[in-house]
Write a structure and sequence with these properties.
Elements (H helix, E strand, L loop, with lengths): L1 H78 L2
Length: 81
């Protein structure tokens, strides 16, 4: 009976250790998933900001192109081209 109780005690300790390890692994998995979500949100925000900046630069380039055309137009008229 004593040996069975000792074996039962060992089995319970093993079970507790496995449960603790399982809980630690579940927490680690949750932390990794949370970190991944945060990185995805940061990446999405960065991409959105870059797209906004690109659009602003395109508008600026268009305005500069229009201004250049305006400046060149009188020159063409004066030279007869």
């Amino acid at each position: 009976v004593g040996e069975l109780q000792a074996a039962l005690g060992d089995a319970k300790r093993q079970q507790e250790l496995q449960e603790a390890e399982g809980q630690a692994l579940r927490q680690e998995l949750k932390d990794v998933r949370d970190g991944q979500r945060i990185l995805e949100k940061k990446g999405s925000a960065a991409l959105k900001d870059l797209k906004r900046q690109l659009q602003l630069e395109r508008r600026r380039a268009d305005r500069l192109q229009e201004r250049l055309q305006e400046l060149l137009a009188p020159t063409r008229a004066r030279t007869g081209q």
